[in-house]
Amino acid sequence: MPAHVQVAMAGSVREGLLALAVGAGMQVMAAMMEESVTCQCQCSPAGGHQAPSLQQSRPGKGD
Q: CA angle, corner 32, sides to 28 and 37, nearest 5?
């Protein structure tokens, strides 16, 4: 096989592998983002407290 044909094939194989890797990465990213959205819906709201009866105080400032 001529050298210029081998080089052309190597370039297209490299591009194909890059496209495959990018596609797989995008699918993983989409799955992670979907999981993040699902988790936020099941957890308490941002800034919310699980036990409202607990109060925060600084050491030495207790009332």
A: 150
